[in-house]
Structures are given as structure tokens and as C-alpha cells.
Amino acid sequence: MTRMFRHQSAVWFTILALGILQACATANPFAAAKSTEQQALALYGSFTILKEQAAKLYIEPGTSPSMKEALSKANAAVTPTMNLMYESVIQVKQVRQDFASGKTTEEKLVVATTNLLKWYTQAVPLLAAFESEYERVRQ
Amino acid sequence: MNPAILSLLPAFLRSVGLLARQAENGVKGAAIGSAVDFAATALERGSEAFVEMQELTSYLSSLAAGEEPSMEVWHDFKARNDAAQMVLGSNPSVSSR
Questions:
Q1: Which of A10-19, A57-66, A126-135 has the lowest mean pLDDT?
Q2: What would the pLDDT profile of B53-68 be if each residue is shown by its tens digit?
Q3: What is the DSSP letter of A33?
């Protein structure tokens, strides 16, 4: 009887885990992004969603001053790079528009896109650090 | 649903995130791993953050490979970011780099 119950629990757990994995696959913007700009939006969007969660935690009545300071520090470590990546995206869009209308060269577009990729690459580990610090503070 | 099983799921998802990092090296592997970690966190909170991650994924999935995200979407995230910054950036003991 106990063995049967365990077996049933294992089956239910597997079904549930598969369901959650499926749900997570639909909540993974990085897997859906194809181009550099799309990857940048996946990163910036995820950062914004996490930052909003951190801001909500910050203003919760039970959040101590040391927790607030930790959240602010973690945010301060990632935000400047994210802002630079955002500005870089705006620049790429502008250069692409100029290139399409013949106002600039393809070389400038390559430089702008390479610059965006540089900020993206720097921002990925910073977001992971922000996420883990948020997680640490929340627990 | 059994609370004991539910409490195990975030840890399970984090191990999936670790596997994703190992399966796909480099920046994309790290990014996918972070997203799975974040999904686990969002699930733990049972928050709207998970739904928002789904919406962002759905939007990106709807774009073709060469199609770039619209400026409206970027501006929307930037405005939300600035609003959250007003809260998190208000701590006097912390300054940005």
C-alpha cells in the first residue's frame, strides 16, 4: 500500500514537474530571442521585472534597513550597465535608420551592433548576481 | 496540491537552470540559466512576475529573426525601470558606480 502510494506520488511529481517545465519554457525570453536586439530586450525586460519585484520587497513593512541596503547595492551594481545597454540599443536603431536612408555606412552599423553586444555580454552576469542577491535577501 | 511537493519545485527548477548553464556554454547558457532561476523565484512568490516573463517570451517569440522589437516596448520597460529606480535608488547609504 505504502509502495503504491509512493509510486503514485512519484508519477504525480513527474507530471507536475513536466507541467512546470513546460510553463517555464513559455516564460524564458532568452530562449525565444533570436537576434542581438531581441536578446538585449530579453535581458532588459527580465531585469525590469526583477527590479520591480525588488522594489516591492524594499517597501514591504517587514524589510529591515540592512535588507534595503543590500537590495539597493545589488541594484546599483547592475543598473549603470543596463542603462548603457539601453542607450546602445537606441543608438543601433538610429544608425540602422540612417543606414537604410543612405546617411551612414554599414561599418558604423557594425560598430554600433558590436557595442551593443559588448554591453549585453557584460550585463548578463550582473543580472544573475542581482537575481541571487534578491533571492538571498528575500529568504 | 501537496504543499511538500510544491515546496520542492523551486529547488528542482534551479537544478534545471544549472543544467541549462552546463548544456549551453557561454553567455546564452548563463542567460537561460538565470531565466530559469528567476522563474523559480517567481513561482515561489506566486507573483505576476511569472506572467510578465511569459508575456515577454510570447512577444519575442512573435518576432521574426530579423524583426527588431518596437521602440514602444523598449520605452515601456524603460519607464517601469525608472519607476523602480525611484524606490531602490532612494537609499542614502548606497550610490551608483
A1: A10-19
A2: 889 999 999 999 889 9
A3: -
Q: What are phi and psi of A29, to 5 degrees?
A: -60, -30
Using alpha carbons, select from A30, A64, A43 the residue that is nearest to residue A130: A43
Partners of residue A86 in chain B, C-beta under 8 Å: 74, 78
Contacts of B14 in chain A (CB under 8 A): none
* Residue reference for cell 548544456: B23
Tens-place pLDDT, residues A62-110: 999 999 999 999 999 999 999 999 999 999 999 999 999 999 999 999 9
Return d(Cα B80, Cα A52) in angstroms, integer.
Answer: 8
CB-CB: which of A9, A24, A42 is closest to B36? A24
C-alpha cell belonging to residue A117? 553586444
Helix (H) or strand (E) holding A137: helix A106-138
Q: How far is A99 from A92, CA to CA, in rounded Å?
A: 10
Q: How many residues does chain B have?
A: 97
Distance (Å, whole) CA A87 – CA A81:
10
**How far, in Å, CA of A11 to CA of A68, rounded?**
42
